[in-house]
């Protein structure tokens, strides 16, 4: 029998916290630039829509990786629901449909506010749920997962939710969007570095399998440190975000000392840095 704990597992709650941090950043930037026009109703709908899409992607990834054999017995990460028989393929499909419907319903008002461009963005997001792990050429299996994550968690989630509140699109907001986008890419890189051996066996050609472990670790350090470097051209932030720099440097040292299951700790710590970055940035803006 499918249990609530199984569904909780398959939603991957840590990724939902990351999605929440990204939307929080976009909404705080909007509040900072246009406090008079800020709508909590729009903010809540943005969070619901983003998290519904994230859950749909997680369910879809569990479904397609389980069906294709990518998630095998040699998996080093957390258990997957379909792989372990915790949730049936049919129930996963229903879950994906339900989350997509929730995203559509919550997105209707956002389309009304944002205009026809958000119809296109919404359709691309729904398409992304499928093509990220499924279809004839899944993005995650062809070295494009990191690009998709940067565009969605960086530019689309932050800049898109910012525009819904302000009705203004400025280049300045792309800097904080890129900063947190790079950090989310770092999460994916750790995940894929850990799974290089099993992904190669399953012929899943992620960016890490294409570059190799050493080069991927170099790239990880770049994505972890770039947000701090971008503070030099950040219109919104001062030196407060440099408080996280020692943590970022520590992660760059640790990545070269860890392999296999040890990278699960690196994954959790990188996710925490994303939450701290979004939280610190937002609080600093609110405090002025």
Structural features, described:
The protein has twelve helices and no strands. It has 288 residues and is mostly helical. α2 runs parallel beside α12 and α11 packs antiparallel against α12. It is globular. The mean pLDDT is 91.
Overview features:
mainly alpha; 288 residues; 72% helix; Farnesyl Diphosphate Synthase; 12 helices
Major sheet summary line: none
CATH fold type? Farnesyl Diphosphate Synthase
Query: Which descriptor suits the 3D outline?
Result: globular
For the record, the CATH class is Mainly Alpha
- Strand residues, percent: under 5%
Average pLDDT level: 91
Number of strands: 0
Q: How many domains make up the coordinates?
A: 1
Range of helix content: over 70%
Q: What distance separates the N and C termini?
A: 51 Å
Proper CATH architecture: Orthogonal Bundle
Helix tally? 12
Contiguous runs where pLDDT drops below 50 for at least 5 residues: none
Structural class: mainly alpha
Radius of gyration: 19 Å
Spell out the helices and strands N to C: HHHHHHHHHHHH
In short:
By secondary structure, the protein is mostly helical. It has one domain: Orthogonal Bundle (Farnesyl Diphosphate Synthase), CATH 1.10.600.
Topology, please?
Elements: H1 4-11, H2 13-33, H3 40-68, H4 89-114, H5 117-131, H6 145-166, H7 174-194, H8 196-201, H9 207-211, H10 213-229, H11 245-255, H12 263-287
Helix pairs in contact: 2-3, 2-6, 2-7, 2-12, 3-4, 3-5, 3-6, 4-5, 6-7, 7-10, 7-12, 10-11, 11-12
């Amino acid at each position: 029998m499918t249990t609530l704990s199984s569904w909780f597992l398959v939603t991957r709650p840590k990724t939902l916290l990351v999605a929440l941090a990204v939307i929080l950043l976009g909404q705080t930037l909007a509040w900072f630039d246009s406090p008079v026009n800020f709508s909590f109703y729009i903010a809540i709908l943005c969070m619901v829509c983003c998290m519904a899409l994230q859950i749909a992607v997680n369910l879809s990834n569990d479904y397609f990786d389980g069906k294709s054999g990518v998630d095998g017995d040699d998996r080093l990460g957390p258990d997957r629901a379909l792989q372990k028989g915790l949730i049936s393929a049919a129930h996963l499909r229903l879950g994906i449909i339900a989350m997509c419907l929730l995203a559509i319903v919550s997105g209707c008002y956002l389309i009304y506010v944002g205009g026809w461009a958000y119809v296109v963005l919404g359709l691309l997001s729904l398409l992304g749920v499928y093509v990220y792990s499924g279809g004839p050429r899944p993005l995650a299996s062809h070295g494009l997962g990191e690009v998709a994550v940067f565009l969605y968690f960086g530019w689309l989630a932050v800049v898109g939710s910012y525009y819904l509140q302000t009705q203004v699109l400025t280049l300045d907001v792309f800097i904080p969007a890129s900063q947190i986008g790079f950090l989310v890419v770092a999460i994916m890189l750790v995940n894929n570095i850990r799974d290089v051996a099993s992904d190669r066996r399953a012929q899943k050609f992620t960016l890490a399998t294409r570059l190799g472990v050493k080069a991927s670790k170099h790239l990880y350090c770049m994505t972890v440190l770039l947000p701090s470097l971008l503070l030099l051209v950040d219109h919104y932030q001062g030196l407060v975000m440099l408080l996280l720099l020692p943590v970022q440097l520590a992660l760059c040292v640790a990545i070269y000392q860890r392999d296999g299951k040890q990278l699960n700790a690196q994954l959790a710590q990188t996710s925490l840095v994303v939450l701290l970055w979004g939280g610190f940035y937002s609080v600093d803006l609110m405090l002025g």
